[in-house]
């Protein structure tokens, strides 16, 4: 009917296709460039695990860093704190626990899964949407909102591990606001004012964390001694402790777990991997493998399917 028709819009019209050219169904004023993967309230901050344990010295350091400026020196600067360290060290949990404990101090708290630019852009768009920015058109609308709102907002930029992403491009350039970055990438120390490496837990906290997961009854002296040994063998490393604890409780095998662990570690080391794992990774792989071997074929398939999903936002119903 309109053989030459292309590149025009019909304000408030219906969604149409004319000779293969797609025509927008909105007037210009309503056109949005909604980022891929955006969904409503995706920046709502999750809470830390109910089993959160220890890390008090680190929480104090972060607390001091984000303390409001004293009245006699009210100069404002944007504050950015980096928590870096190995996967499973507990960086995300510490950031979430900090904002849980000190939420009164901030006007708003946003959680951004910073593992991809798609997710960062979608989250910034969400910040515009949750703040009711009229005519929010793209992810830059969120940056503008943060820039223009001189408030004490807090953003957790979580799992910013990819060195190819230029994180700076996604920080609002202003003198206000607070950001915590968690990352495995120590290089990010160059873009922040303060950073801290998260390592093993102090032994007492490591043992407590193991027992929170491993024991559902008071333990005998011998059993407690055994828990101390297991936590030490796992270098008081949170992810390994949690994995081991869950298995011990499920299989009621506190007294025999060390034997399984040593066998598993030996088997992994015999595998001639391209790069031998360091002591932390070895503990994580070993504790994981012990649990994995216990699963039925159907459960393994389910977990393999889950591994294709994003590690956040997996519905509990699954
Ligand atoms: N302080 C803690 N108290 C209780 N559990 C913890 C603590 N730290 C970590 N964990 C446990 O270890 C798991 C891994 O922690 P977390 O996801 O915070 O590690 P991460 O350093 O952010 O790892 P990644 O680099 O893979 O994102 C958590 O799911 C939680 O079960
Ligand atoms: Mg993390």
TrEMBL record:
<protein>
    <submittedName>
        <fullName>P-loop containing nucleoside triphosphate hydrolase protein</fullName>
    </submittedName>
</protein>
<dbReference type="InterPro" id="IPR027417">
    <property type="entry name" value="P-loop_NTPase"/>
</dbReference>
<keyword id="KW-0378">Hydrolase</keyword>
<dbReference type="GO" id="GO:0016787">
    <property type="term" value="F:hydrolase activity"/>
</dbReference>
